[in-house]
Amino acid sequence: MPQFRGQNYAAFLFDMDGTMVDSSVVVERVWREWAERHGVDPATVLAACHGVRSEDLVKRFAPTGIEVSGEVAVILAAEVADIEGVVPVEGIGALIESLDPGRWAVVTSAPRQLAEVRLRAAGIPLPKVLIAAEDVERGKPDPQGFQKAAALLGVPVTACLVFEDSHAGIAAAKAAGAQVAIVGKLAAEVEGHHALVDYR
To answer: Which terms are listed as keywords in the entry (predicted)?
Structure first.
């Protein structure tokens, strides 16, 4: 069983962007251009874009009358075509190599096509279980993605450890009843029992 800080877990469930793959340069580049094109304050969009589905962001910020599915398709095409600056989070490769392939999964707000492109660009093997944006009816902060990943791995989600870097992802993991370990800068902002993770 995967072990983290002396405790065994049934499985590890990883968010992707910011947790396994550092794609922040691309994410901010694409969403800044989208916001400027539609006359939306880029800073407001960028503050909300991490950890949530493109569909949900477009619904929240797009001007009235915008066709959501068309905008989502444009954004996806831009993100898939732009992998400059996509790199693995330091130390994640060694951690993944140490895990049984049946004991970890990825739960991302990115569409499957984009998730596969970014994981490959970062040199991270594709997981046996990958829950992407189109695999759930409700994205993070809803727990559905983590619940579905655990079910496909054949383990209770309450016995899993989730690695996350966004408020939406942490809320989703907690709502699922999983334990949470925070990757990156967010740990300093979050109160509670969460642990800051350094994969190195």
So the answer is: Hydrolase
Band (199; pLDDT cuts 50, 70, 90) = confident
HSE-CB at 165 with a 13 A cutoff on CA atoms is 21
Are 64 and 127 members of one domain?
A: no
Active site residue 100: no
Which of 183, 168, 178, 182 lies closest to 138 in space, CA to CA? Answer: 168
Given 17, 22, 56, 165, the catalytic residue? 17
Count CA atoms within 13 Å of residue 112 on its CB side.
9
Indicate which residue of 15, 22, 56, 165 is catalytic: 15
Place of tokens 């503050």: 47
Q: What is the C-alpha to C-alpha distance for residues 160 and 176, in angstroms, rounded to an integer? A: 10
- 11 and 103 part of one domain: yes
Q: What is the CA radius of gyration of the chain?
A: 16
pLDDT in tens, 122-141: 999 999 999 999 999 999 99
Rounded Cα distance, 107 and 32, in Å: 24
CA triplet 173, 178, 181: central angle to 5 degrees? 75
**Beta strands 130-131 and 179-183, pairing class:** unpaired
Domain count, the chain: 2
CATH number, position 113: 3.40.50.1000
Question: Which domain covers residue 11, as residue numbers?
Answer: 3-23+86-197
* 175 token code pair: 């709502």
Task: Specify whether 22 is catalytic.
Answer: no
